[in-house]
Specification:
The complex is a heterodimer of chains A (288) and B (343).
Chain A: H1 2-32, H2 39-55, H3 60-82, H4 91-113, E1 127-129, E2 132-134, H5 136-158, H6 160-170, H7 172-177, H8 182-204, H9 215-229, H10 233-254, H11 257-274, H12 279-282
Antiparallel strand pairs in A: 1-2
Helix pairs in contact in A: 1-5, 1-8, 1-9, 1-10, 2-3, 2-4, 2-8, 2-9, 3-8, 5-6, 9-10, 9-11, 10-11
Chain B: H1 2-26, H2 29-51, H3 59-77, H4 81-103, H5 109-128, E1 136-137, E2 140-141, E3 148-149, E4 155-156, E5 159-163, H6 167-189, H7 191-201, H8 203-208, H9 213-239, E6 241-242, H10 249-262, H11 268-284, H12 292-306, H13 311-335, H14 338-342
Antiparallel strand pairs in B: 1-2, 3-6, 4-5
Helix pairs in contact in B: 1-6, 2-6, 2-9, 2-10, 2-11, 3-4, 3-9, 4-9, 6-7, 7-9, 10-11, 10-12
The chains are: A mainly alpha (288), B mainly alpha (343).
C-alpha cells in the first residue's frame, strides 16, 4: 500500500518534471517551428541565476519563480534578435546555430562559474509515508507543473494574446495579412519560451548539482518529448511526457535509473518509428 | 569519365606524397596522426550528409563503436589485423540495422536527427554504466566510465610483437586516409553515388524513377559508418585507451561543426575542417584564458550565419570568379561555339 503510493508519487513526479523540462522547447517549436538546441543551456543558466541570487540573500522562491525566468528570457531575447531572427524557415540551420549557442553558453558558464558543481539545498523538508521517505520538493514540482500547464491553457484559450498566438501557429501568412507582425510575435514567443526554460531550470536546480554541462542531460529528454508529442502544443506535451515519464520511472524502479533512461529513449525510438509525426499527428488532431 | 578519374587520383596521390613529407616539418607526427583520424571522421559525415542528405547527429556513435570493437577484440585476439577489420564491420552492421529501421519507416530530417541523437545517448549511458566486473565480453571488461586501457595496439599483420607506432603509425594513417578518400571519390563517380546525390536533391522524384531510395540510403549510411568506424579503430590505437567520452554529445557536435566549416557537398571540405579545427582546439587547449568550447560554439554560429556553405566552396567560388571566367572567355574567343557544348 505504502509502496504503491510512493510509486504513484514518483511516476507523477517523473511526468511533471518531464512536462516542466519540455514546456519551453514545446512553445518555441510549436509556434515557430524552431528547434532550440540551446534549451538545455537556458535551463542551466536559469539554475545558475536562481542559485546566484539566492546566495546573494534573495528569498529562494522569488529567485526561482521570478528572477530566473526574467534573466533567461532577456538572454533569449538577445539571442533571438542577434541569431535566430536571420534563420527563420531554415530548420536545420537553426538547429545548428542553436547547437553552437549551446556550446557558447557552456563555455561562458565554465569561465564565470568554473567547472565545479554548485548546489543549493531543497527549501521544503521531506516526510515519511509508512516505511518510506518522500522528498517534499517532488510535490512542489508536481504542483508547479500542473499550474504551469493550466496557465498555458488559459492564456492560449481565453486571452486575445493567445488567440493571436494560435492564429500565427496555424497560418503565419494569414496572421500577417490581418496586421499582426510575425516578427514581433516570434520575438515575444521566443522570450516566453526562454523564460519557461529558465523557470524549469531554476525549479529543478535544488535537485541536481549544477555544472556548466548539465544542460545536456535535459536537452535530449526535452527534445524527444517535444518531437514525440507532435504538432499539438499542450496535448502533445502532456501525452508524450505521461508516456515517457511512466516508462522511465517504472523501469527505474524495476532495475536502475540508467536502465530507466535507456528504456525511455528506446520507447521514443519505437514510438517515432510507429508514429513518425508524433502522438498528436495521429490522435487529438486539431486540438490545442 | 574513367580517364579523368585516373587523372584525378594521380593528382591526389601526388599531392598526398608531397604533404606526407612536408607536414611533419610544421607539426609533430603524433598530433598529425590524430588530425588525420579526425579528417577521416569528418569525411564520413561529409559523405552521408553532404552527398546523401542524411543529417546524422550521432556520427560519433559509429566512431565510438569502431574504437570499442577494436579494443574489445584486440584484447581477446591479441593481434591487430582482425580487430581493425572488426572496427569497420561492427559499426557498418549496426548502421545498416539502424538505417533500415529509419529509412524503411520513412523518417526524414528532424526525426532522423532525433533518432540518431537518441541512439548515441543510449550507447553513452549504457557504456558509462558498465563499470562493474559483470560486464565482460570474452576477456575484455567494458570498464564503464574508466574506459578500456591496455589492449594490443596496431602491429604488422601476423607479427604481434612488431608494433606500428610513432612515425610509422602516421604514415599508416595517411595511407588509410588517402585510400578512403579515393574510394569515396570512386563511389561518388559511380552510378550509385550519382543516384545518392539525386536522392539528396529530390527523394520522391528518384523513387518515382524506379530507384529504391530506402535501400540506397541504408547502404550509404552503412558506408559512412564503416569509415567512421575505421577512424574509431585508428583513434583507439592513437589514444591507447577507449572511453565513453567517444559517444558524448560534444564529440557529435564537433563532427557537425567540422563539416559546416569545411563545406558540405565537397570531399575535401570536411577533412580540412576537421584537421584545422582540431588543431585550433589543440592550440587553444594550451592556454586557459578563454574556454575552447566557447570558441567552437562561436565558430559554428558565425559560420551558419555568414558562411553557411563553408570554406572550401567559398574559396573555389572565389577562384572561379577571379580566374575561371577569364579562362572561359579566352577559350571562348579561341574555340568559338564549341565551348557551349562542353559547358
Amino acid at each position: 500500500m505504502d509502496f504503491g503510493f510512493v510509486l504513484l508519487v514518483e511516476i507523477l513526479y517523473a511526468v511533471a518534471s518531464l512536462a516542466l523540462i519540455s514546456a519551453g522547447l514545446a512553445v518555441v517549436f510549436g509556434m515557430m517551428k524552431v528547434i532550440n538546441l540551446a534549451h538545455g543551456e537556458f535551463m542551466m543558466l536559469g539554475g545558475y541565476a536562481a542559485i546566484t541570487s539566492a546566495n546573494m540573500g534573495v528569498n529562494i522562491f522569488i529567485a526561482m519563480l521570478i528572477i530566473a525566468p526574467i534573466v533567461v528570457g532577456l538572454i533569449g531575447l538577445i539571442v533571438e534578435r542577434l541569431v535566430i531572427r536571420h534563420l527563420y524557415g531554415r530548420l536545420v540551420d537553426t538547429m545548428l546555430a542553436t547547437w553552437g549557442l549551446s556550446l557558447f553558453f557552456i563555455g561562458c558558464a565554465t569561465m564565470i562559474f568554473g567547472n565545479t558543481t554548485t548546489g543549493i539545498s531543497t527549501p521544503i523538508p521531506g516526510f515519511a509515508v509508512g516505511d518510506y521517505q518522500i522528498n517534499g520538493y517532488n510535490f512542489f514540482i508536481i504542483i508547479v507543473s500542473v499550474v504551469l500547464i493550466l496557465a498555458m491553457l488559459a492564456v492560449l484559450k481565453t486571452t486575445r494574446l493567445g488567440l493571436i498566438a494560435r492564429g500565427t501557429m496555424q497560418n503565419p501568412d494569414m496572421a500577417s495579412a490581418l496586421g499582426y507582425s510575425p516578427d514581433r510575435i516570434y520575438m515575444a514567443t521566443f522570450f516566453v519560451g526562454s523564460a519557461l526554460s529558465g523557470f524549469a531550470g531554476a525549479i529543478l536546480a535544488p535537485l541536481v548539482g549544477l555544472v556548466p554541462t548539465s544542460g545536456g542531460a535535459f536537452i535530449a529528454k526535452a527534445f524527444i518529448t517535444v518531437i514525440a508529442g507532435g504538432p499539438a502544443l499542450i496535448s502533445g506535451l502532456l501525452s508524450s511526457s505521461a508516456l515517457f515519464g511512466f516508462v522511465g520511472q517504472v523501469f527505474s524502479f524495476a532495475a536502475s535509473p540508467v536502465i530507466g533512461d535507456v528504456a525511455m529513449l528506446i520507447a521514443a525510438v519505437i514510438l517515432l518509428r510507429l508514429l513518425p509525426k508524433g502522438v498528436t499527428g495521429r490522435f487529438f488532431k486539431g486540438k490545442l | 569519365m574513367p580517364k579523368s578519374w585516373q587523372k584525378e587520383s594521380a593528382i591526389v596521390i601526388a599531392i598526398a606524397l608531397i604533404l606526407v613529407y612536408a607536414l611533419p616539418f610544421a607539426i609533430n607526427t603524433f598530433t598529425l596522426s590524430v588530425l588525420l583520424i579526425y579528417g577521416m571522421l569528418g569525411l564520413s559525415l561529409g559523405l552521408i550528409w553532404g552527398f546523401g542528405g542524411i543529417l546524422c547527429f550521432g556520427q560519433t556513435a559509429f566512431f565510438g563503436l569502431g574504437a570499442y570493437a577494436y579494443a574489445i577484440s584486440a584484447i581477446n585476439i591479441g593481434e591487430s589485423t582482425l580487430p581493425l577489420i572488426f572496427s569497420i564491420l561492427v559499426p557498418a552492421a549496426f548502421a545498416a540495422l539502424m538505417g533500415a529501421m529509419m529509412f524503411y519507416g520513412r523518417l526524414a530530417d528532424v526525426y532522423l536527427g532525433v533518432i540518431t541523437l537518441v541512439v548515441t545517448l543510449i550507447l553513452f549511458k549504457f557504456i558509462n554504466s558498465t563499470a562493474s566486473p559483470i560486464y565482460v565480453i570474452g576477456e575484455a571488461r567494458l570498464g564503464g566510465y574508466n574506459g578500456i586501457p591496455g589492449f594490443q595496439t596496431l602491429n604488422i599483420p601476423g607479427r604481434p610483437d612488431d608494433y606500428i607506432w610513432g612515425d610509422a603509425f602516421y604514415y599508416f594513417c595517411f595511407a588509410a586516409l588517402v585510400i578512403v578518400y579515393l574510394l569515396v571519390s570512386w563511389l561518388l563517380r559511380s552510378s550509385f553515388g550519382r543516384i545518392a546525390i539525386g536522392i539528396r536533391e529530390n527523394d520522391e522524384r528518384m523513387s518515382l524513377m524506379g530507384y529504391d531510395t530506402r535501400a540506397r540510403k541504408t547502404v550509404l549510411f552503412a558506408i559512412g559508418a564503416a569509415i567512421a568506424g575505421l577512424a574509431g579503430g585508428l583513434f583507439a590505437n592513437w589514444a591507447e585507451i577507449v572511453t565513453p567520452g567517444l559517444f558524448s554529445l560534444g564529440q557529435s557536435a564537433e563532427i557537425i561543426i567540422w563539416c559546416i566549416v569545411g563545406g558540405l557537398g565537397t570531399r575535401l571540405g570536411p577533412i580540412i575542417g576537421a584537421a584545422s579545427l582540431a588543431y585550433l582546439k589543440f592550440l587553444l587547449g594550451q592556454q586557459s584564458m578563454i574556454d575552447n568550447t566557447l570558441i567552437m560554439g562561436l565558430i559554428l554560429v558565425l559560420f551558419v550565419l555568414f558562411l553557411p556553405k563553408g570554406i572550401v566552396p567559398a574559396i573555389s567560388d572565389l577562384w572561379a570568379a577571379s580566374f575561371g571566367r577569364r579562362r572561359k572567355r579566352l577559350r571562348k574567343s579561341r574555340r568559338g561555339t564549341r565551348v557551349m557544348s562542353n559547358g
